[in-house]
């Protein structure tokens, strides 16, 4: 196979594996499921990725890198005000989950089933370093008198939970709101970006 064909095949496999893992988790997914959905035979799948666990680690690592890339770019940027950073974080997180609605369920399930593995991933990701930068920025804004006295840890927790929970509890909210289709619900989530930003900033701004 040419390098180009190899690369294309690997990307197809990873895209398919991501969908299967997000839906079924590591325990529920089978290599045969991934091969069938990708339209290849199982032997070819094993040629590129030796095991389900190895493929799972690669998918997790790519998701981690994607998350860290945008979070670090926003938080360490000198071009945004503190309030603009909050806006960018909210918008990017919700956009990511609109594009991959099963991602929050997948992450939550894996945290519950494999806490040590997920903790190791966080340790290696650099998230703590970026998180600490945000905490310091929050403290600086408190000292300047632009926001009320709030810990950066609590503020980030509020932002992430407000962004994520509606996707985790989607069936519950769809029932409460009388929404019948996923497409309609995702439109509500698009509008939610503005609601969350305004709610968070109004809650902390002096």
UniProtKB/TrEMBL annotation:
PROSITE patterns: HTH_TETR_2 (PS50977)
GO terms for MF: DNA binding
Pfam families assigned to the protein according to its UniProt record, in alphabetical order: TetR_N
Domain HTH tetR-type: 7-67
DNA-binding region (UniProt annotation): 30-49
Sorted UniProt keywords: DNA-binding
Matches recorded under InterPro entries: Homeodomain-like_sf, HTH-type_Tx_Regulator, HTH_TetR, Tet_transcr_reg_TetR-rel_C_sf
Signal peptide per UniProt: none
Stated name of the protein: TetR family transcriptional regulator
Organism field: Sporocytophaga myxococcoides
């Amino acid at each position: 196979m040419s390098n180009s064909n190899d690369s294309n095949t690997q990307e197809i496999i990873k895209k398919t594996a991501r969908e299967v893992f997000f839906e079924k988790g590591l325990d529920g997914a089978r290599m045969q499921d991934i091969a069938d959905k990708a339209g290849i035979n199982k032997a070819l799948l094993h040629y590129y990725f030796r095991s389900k666990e190895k493929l799972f680690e690669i998918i997790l690592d790519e998701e981690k890198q994607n998350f860290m890339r945008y979070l670090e770019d926003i938080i360490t940027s000198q071009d945004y005000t503190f309030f603009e950073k909050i806006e960018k974080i909210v918008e990017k997180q919700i956009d990511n989950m609109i594009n991959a609605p099963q991602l929050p369920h997948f992450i939550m399930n894996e945290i519950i089933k494999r806490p040590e593995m997920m903790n190791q991933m966080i340790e290696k990701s650099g998230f703590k370093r970026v998180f600490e930068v945000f905490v310091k920025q929050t403290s600086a804004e408190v000292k300047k008198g632009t926001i009320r006295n709030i810990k950066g840890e609590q503020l980030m927790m509020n932002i992430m939970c407000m962004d994520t929970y509606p996707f985790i509890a989607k069936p519950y909210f769809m029932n409460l709101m009388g929404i019948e289709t996923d497409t309609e619900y995702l439109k509500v989530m698009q509008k939610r970006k503005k609601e969350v930003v305004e709610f968070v900033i109004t809650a902390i701004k002096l």
